[in-house]
Design brief:
alpha+beta, 3 domains, five-stranded antiparallel β-sheet, 5 strands, 13% strand
């Protein structure tokens, strides 16, 4: 009979943790987001039409599970669809201009807008993965090229790169000389972001390698 080794229990515990933690956290995040969005409609209807939506025994507006989420998703799709029309686009531009000129509100609005447009929409910024050499010519960091012209800062030979932090929702913006930046045409922006956030643990696809940086000029 093999002797009992406490180390095996610790091994099995962490092995189970590695398997279950990502699943549980993902489900929790999805359910929390669903409940948050799903709760928008009943609360809004109760405020606008208190006679239409009653409160339950707990004091919360009564709701049909999933209805609020479905309505919000449909509204988002409709806004995206009609925003392409000339009249609506002009109204959006007018509303956008008002918010960006309103003291206090403009800081929050412009920051959130720029951040979302950096990942999606027609003004995506985090779509050019690059290798950047900052402290040493032999050490490279993975980031994203965000601006190719920063002459207005008095830096004619520099570009702007953003370097996200690993395991954090933050990063640092650098002005770097062009010759110290190498574009990675063979690596997708999503793969590069996952590689950075995971601290280099995530594998890059078979045809997407960080081993041979592209030397295209910026």
């Amino acid at each position: 009979m093999k002797p009992f080794r406490p180390g095996k229990l610790i091994y099995f515990f962490f092995q189970g943790l590695v398997i279950l933690a990502p699943i549980v956290i993902t489900i929790w995040a999805v359910v929390s987001l669903f409940n948050l969005i799903d709760g928008i409609l009943p609360n809004l209807l109760h405020i606008l039409f208190p006679e239409l939506v009653k409160l339950d025994v707990s004091g919360y507006p009564e709701k049909i599970p999933g209805l609020g989420f479905l309505v919000v998703v449909i509204i988002v799709f409709l806004v995206g669809y009609i925003s392409s029309s000339f009249v609506v686009s002009k109204l959006v531009e007018l509303f956008d201009s008002v918010l960006e000129k309103t003291p206090g509100i403009k800081i929050i609005y412009s920051t959130v807008k720029d951040f979302l447009e950096a990942f999606a929409g027609n003004k995506r910024k985090f779509n050019k993965p690059v290798l950047v050499s900052i402290e040493s010519e032999e050490v490279w960091r993975l980031g994203f090229l965000t601006q190719t012209d920063v002459a207005h800062f008095g830096l004619k030979d520099h570009v702007t790169v953003y370097l996200p932090h690993s395991y954090a929702f933050s990063g640092i913006t650098y002005f770097v000389k062009r010759e110290r930046v190498k574009i990675l045409n063979d690596v997708g922006s999503a793969e590069a972001m996952k590689f950075i956030i995971s601290g280099g643990v995530t594998d890059i696809g078979e045809h997407e390698t960080l081993g041979v940086p592209n030397n295209d000029k910026i």
